[in-house]
Batch of 4 targets.
Target 1
Amino acid sequence: MAVKSVVYRHRKPQATDNYRCVEDLEAFLQVYEERFERSYGFFRPYLQHVICRYLECGNLRNGFARVKCRDCNHEYLLAFSCKRRHFCPSCHQKRVVEFGEGYV
């Protein structure tokens, strides 16, 4: 069985529009009712937890694993992810790829 070679690409969630939209969560929550509630419904308290996890996703300051190749000794830091589907584009895409491989 062949082992797939995985190349880690550091992502920069702070540079995305999605991140900037909710980066200042307090300000977002203050304007939600006025600007978004009519279109999207009331803000469910669980969403605040999901957004906080998303804002922490991929940030080395919030925890990481050190990954090292036994053959070439190359190593890198892998930031912990939020593991949230649908809201976090990075984690959602990972799940889509993992799920889709079973059907190829």
Note: Residues 13-101 form one domain.
Target 2
Amino acid sequence: MRCFFVTLILVQASILRILGEPSDPALTGTKAASFPTNAIPSEAEPIGRPVGFVWIKPGTFLMGSPKMEQERGKNEGPQTLVTIAKGFWMGRHEVTQAEFQLVMGGDRSQFKGESLPMESVSWFNATNYCRRLSLREKAAGHLPPGYWFRLPTEAEWEYACRAGKISAYAFGSSLSSTKANFNGNHPYGGALKGPNVDATTPVGSYPPNAWGLYDMHGNVWEWCLDWYGPYPGGEVTDPKGPATGFKRVVRGGNWFLMGRYCRSADRMYDFPGSKDASLGFRVVLAQVE
């Protein structure tokens, strides 16, 4: 079944890639994004509290899944003790169509709605968005020196998704579609079947995890910064995946997949030029290294 879904995604992505990438519009004449000025430092939250973002404190967690976790993938091990040495800000929700249009212009989403997650975006589209948002907010004086918007690393994503939990989900060891947007006919961990929306839903429609992040499970797959590669095992600090590769990491499952693919540890990947209705993203605001 997993092979079927992956094949479907790749076929759709191949068709969409023929259409080419959206143009990168000029910076001049575009409306400024609505982020407040962050000039007052804070020990807990170094640059204040940007609108729509959650402060993720540094910490250590076990990345990947234990061998006894139901329906785990082989690529989820070996479990690796990861230290996130620097805190970062993460978007409270996936980038919406309204937010994407404000920065980039245009909308190729298959499901239309300002509060719906932006989908049908490639990894290149997502990183272009981060770059242009950074330039706009820097020019407007909303970002302090040394901070930049980017995609989360795979380790940052799983750390934030788990929100301190070691279970299969941030909500526990089971998942029904009353808590996340996925194929409700295929819940996980003994949960009962639930509603099946069969489309994306407005961001924030389901309960957040313990750290205040919405839709980390389901809705759309989220692009990560990393090239896809095996876990190193042992103990590492701020891992960033392989230096080169062919496919980028996507995390979190999506609206049409089974619950097993929405687990915190589940890993998937796609070509960076792929784009379809299952692919979206969220951004982080972090110090430039």
Note: Confidence is low (pLDDT under 50) at residues 1-43.
Target 3
Amino acid sequence: MNFQNSLDFAKKMDLYDPLKNFRQKFYLPSQNGKSQIYFCGNSLGLQPKSTQAHIEQELKDWQTLGVEGHFHGKNPWYYYHHFVEEASARLVGAKKDEVVIMNSLTVNLHLMMISFYRPTPQRYKILIESPAFPSDQYAVASQAQIYGYDPKEAIVEAVPRVGEETLRTEDILAQIEELGDELALVMFGGVNYYTGQFFELEKISQAAHKVGAKVGFDLAHAAGNVLLNLHDWEVDFAVWCSYKYLNSGPGGTSGAFVHEKHGNNPNIPRLAGWWGNDEKTRFQMPKQFVPQAGAAGWQISNAQVFPMAAYKASLEIFEEAGIENLRKKGDLLTGYLEFLINDLNQSEKQGNFNIITPHDPNQRGCQLSILTGENGKTLFDKLTQVGVVADWREPNVIRVAPVPLYNTFEDVWQFAHILQS
């Protein structure tokens, strides 16, 4: 694509955008009577206009049916996780029995690690990326402590080379091989929250399994953003939230993936609860836990119907748009943003905006992380004052995420124009 730094070019791109009408399916926040330039879908996605009706349906069934809503509502609550499993599976490249929607993100990470981090005196180390999202760091550290290991010894960080901001795949694979039979688990973010780097998950999975380790991914910044194929990549487990690119609202419900080679093993260690018991016998109240086959066997408590209703509303939009189509537009939007920032850096004003997200579209999603100078926070605050919603990550990065469902090429051009002024 031969991009041009002009408003006319941006408007033309929007005119011929096959996904342009999806913007109308979302509420756009405003400031001083004008729509904001909302580039924060990597932190909290916008509200679909259909969300209210989905939640009101469940409120209506509760109002009119009471407890009978579990079996006689429009969407019976007893089976609610089934209503979102097929669309969720398509988003992460899984079989429908390999996914379940439940709980919140770090809770699901802990549940997965109970099953897949089973350290021994020889094999006890966990490899994570640096910088990993703090909640992931806290989770893996506490899991190591449960087994009596010092996190400083049990947790190994994959660190970029000196002078570089992102990790090289060959360095990650070499570190996995070096750890060898000491390595119990590789637990990476699918897309790093700080740099926006999309890791080569298939290669990481293969390397981990080659040395006898398990592999899991936190897909908080990947689900609904990049193309995933968890089943074919033979990932052991994955977790994700639904309130970022998946637009299910603050604190929205989470997803979990368990590969069928584990999901069909009823003897795998897990924390059990009655909602994970076989649906056919759950209400017979058996003393012996018999897990459902697949990821659903990791459920503990009743489905979170209202948050899942919001998630269901967003999934319907993804089903209509198609994740492959969204990824194509996302590549163009992000590429245009990168082009404009690079053009700004080369202009007479000599911008000082260092993009630390990989240039290769295969190694990123919608997010560009811009490394700013010492006045970066002041710049970020000025952007906020004029109606740009991005987010700031310490010590000096502005994260900008043009989301293909509701952002436009004009949004991107306007942002760069404001950045220059």
Note: Residues 323-345 form the longest helix (23 residues).
Target 4
Amino acid sequence: MYKNEFDNILRQKQRNSAYLFYGEADFLIDNYIEQTIKSLDIAIDEVEKIYHDDYDLNYIKNQLSQSSLFSLNNLIVIKTSKKIPKKEMEVIVNAAKSNPDSVVIFAIYINEKLGTHEKLFTPKGDGICVRFFNPKPYEAIAVLSQEANNLGLKYTQDALTHLYATHEENLSLCVNDLKKLQILDEEITYNIISKYCFGMGEVSVDGFLHNLFDNKNINKEIYLILEEGVNEVFLISQISTFIQQLFMINSYTRTHGYPNSKEILGYSPPKDVWEKKTTIASKIKSKQFLEIMNYYNDLELELKTNRHLDSNSYVSSKLRQHSAIFC
């Protein structure tokens, strides 16, 4: 089934027992998982996500076969970048079909046709299969338009096109930036994208944040980011978001034993960027996260309330003090 066909099914709020979403478009797969859950009116606490390292056939079969004592729905999302044997998938699908309260969604991030697996997911058999290909540019811009509308943003079409090109056609990074741009409370234009969004080949805010928390010399980055016009409040907001991500990485790792980027961030950043973040997160003690967050919350409040403040110089000074206080 093609994506546009499935869009009609979503609008009709049709419920099936088993779904197979697969292909090379990671963002679209994750996005349609969320849309499917929403169309089925299933609450987040009724959804269990299982990743490849936690995959256990018997556990999944038993969970789907039994109705939950605490909710009306029983939905399991299985996420993996490896092919699941067809016989095992068939066992899971049949378990979901045997229980009217159960639904299973397979999300397989693989650039390979799963022809034999698709046969388990036919409309007559109470199943849906959608293969997601990387969208064409006009399709990607339409996705970004929808995301921007959902976020309540005002924007120009050339701004979205510029953002898509800036992030080398990575929808996950584009949507992540749209969420950050909400703080500006103004129309998102081509110039706004140029001013606040950084591609992989430019001086990036993420690169600056890695150096800031890794106790490296940040004088050059401060100049490039602040002196060339990045809004101070916007920058502090991004630092706060970065701190929250580090805290989530730290907490998730202590709970599960390993950091899963898709679960924590909602997308997979470049390997080297993710490794830097996880390394930094592991070095910060749990109690210190609150101190760091309070430091930047106070800084943001000062910027928003003190009209006579030289914001540029003040933020530069505070960022240079970071290493002395926390590293």
Note: The first helix runs from residue 3 to 11.
